[in-house]
Amino acid sequence: MIFQCQKEELLNILNIVSKAVSPRAAMPILEGIYIKAQAECIKIVGNDNELGIECTLPAQVYEEGSIVLIAKTFIDIIRRLPNDTVTVKVSEDRNAIITCQNIEYKIIGLSDDEYPLIPEIEPENSFKIESEKLKSMIRRTLFATSQNESRMVLTGSLFEVKDNYLTVVSVDGFRLALRNESVKNGDEKEFSFIIPGKTLGELVKILEDDDSIVNVSLTQRYVMLKTEDAKVVSRLIEGAFLNYNKTIPVDSAYSVVIPVNSVLESVERCEPIIAADDAKSPVRLIFTEKELIVKCIAATGQIVDIIPVPFNGEELEIGFNHKYLRDALKACETDLIKLEFNSNLSPCLLKPIEGEGFLQMVLPVRLKNDN
Q: pTM of whole model > 0.85?
């Protein structure tokens, strides 16, 4: 096997595929990356039997063939090469010679006979969606997945397909993030599944910001996402997701329109005060008739920031974990949003002015001066 490609392009692909490689696998072969040179491209695969990633890269192929190389060693070598053309030549005894300019490495490869390649799956359900849509939906909801593995179903995001719409929901017990987008679902079946957060994090790196189509196929235990240059197969999380609809308030006593960027910047200005305070003081939003006062008080100091925001109602003060509020505001892609809530201790909803494209929900914290 002999091929040539550019160092930066190869390294980018290796960094993506390596996320599906187990550094301490029970089977040594799973610590490797499968490389196959064919026609005018190379196929690179990582697979730990939970997550599999396959990418293709245009290359000058002089001799077809395949090999498995230990991922950490191969990536470390490529990373240290100059930004120039890299040549990889594999002999019949599986020695891989890697050259770039005047540099030459020689490493021992593994036979690819037992490597678990990513299979084609026979889908029970499927749909199609534009890459930029799916990427945005994942990016704007992934932050709300739980890190607590005692409730494994919440460490992933729920995907629901119904009436040619895809809804993606993440919940961690303190906040909720939801997004809706149209999809191409030919048979109009209704189905749902949970993709692990780890898989979703890698998909954000792989998916392009364009209108190319992503084919999503489901079996009972696996999901496969295919683009023109990549294929990702992941085991699904089994179990029943939280009935999130029951947690979202239907009616609200207060509704106020806020400028997203101004409030986000104000919340971020509180971070130096919060960082210096071991108690992690909450960010306080004080709604008055004509102003929104963003305030943070800590043992080490305080900050007060005033934003012109009309409010119909009696003065009200509500507190939030600054990180949760910041993340929710960042996930809103509009200039203005509605905040809806019933009291300073009830869930706060962040909604678009029109439509139902997204929804964020953040639980407030009890302030020290609350009864």
A: yes
